[in-house]
Write a structure and sequence with these properties.
single chain; 216 residues; Immunoglobulin-like; four-stranded antiparallel beta sheet; 4 helices; 25% helix
Length: 216
């Protein structure tokens, strides 16, 4: 069945009318922050002042005194290490040899023997000449005394008091030290006890050097 032409026009007109879109929700604006007001959602951290114990004045003074003593001992050890280059401690229980610095070069010390002698000790040892020249005579400075024991008092005062108990003696040795050879020596150290003889140190100062001359 065919529709009338007027009815077709009405249907076409109705189908061409625009349709209204569905309403949409507008976007929310971004949140704003007010820096003038304190935040309420941030948890507050409480500092326990009682847990952080401050050291007392006595503890601070004790720590400062300990640090000063450590610095003084480090300075003294540095000075002793520098002096030790020109001195050697004779130890009869040591094995091998010792190296001692002199104004001419290095010498060796070995085979130390200590025996009681009157109110002291007789010390025998050998000196090895490493030089290419012959040394005629030398001066030996011997020092001995009680061991140093650091205490709680002033370090420098304790060292000075210990040094007052040390003894010093100079020996003029006329022996000839040939190049590349060992020369036996003997020193009489007195007065001395068993504790002080363990700290016996000597310093070697050569006197005369003999060398051959090449004649042309």
């Amino acid at each position: 069945m065919r529709l009338p032409a007027c009815l077709l026009l009405v249907v076409a007109a109705v189908g061409c009318q625009p349709t209204n879109p569905a309403p949409t929700t507008p976007p929310k604006p971004p949140p704003t922050w007010d820096n003038t007001k304190p935040a309420t959602n941030v948890p507050k951290q409480k500092l326990d002042l009682e847990a952080v114990a401050e050291p007392s004045v006595a503890e601070q003074l004790a720590d400062l005194k300990r640090r000063v003593q450590e610095m003084e001992m480090a300075r003294l050890r540095a000075g002793w290490a520098e002096e030790a280059k020109s001195q050697a401690t004779l130890d009869p229980t040591a094995k091998g040899f010792l190296v001692i610095e002199t104004s001419l070069g290095r010498f060796l010390l070995a085979d130390t023997e200590v025996t009681p002698y009157l109110d002291g000790y007789s010390v025998r040892f050998k000196v090895g000449n490493l030089l290419a020249a012959t040394v005629a005579g030398c001066k030996i400075t011997a020092r001995w005394g009680p061991p140093f024991v650091p205490g709680t008092n002033d370090i420098e005062a304790a060292v000075a008091a210990n040094h007052k108990q040390w003894r010093t003696n100079n020996f003029e040795v006329p022996d000839v030290f040939l190049s590349g050879l060992w020369t036996p020596l003997e020193l009489k150290i007195a007065p001395a006890d068993a504790a002080s003889i363990r700290n016996l140190s000597i310093e070697l100062q050569p006197s005369t050097v003999n060398m051959r001359e090449v004649k042309k």
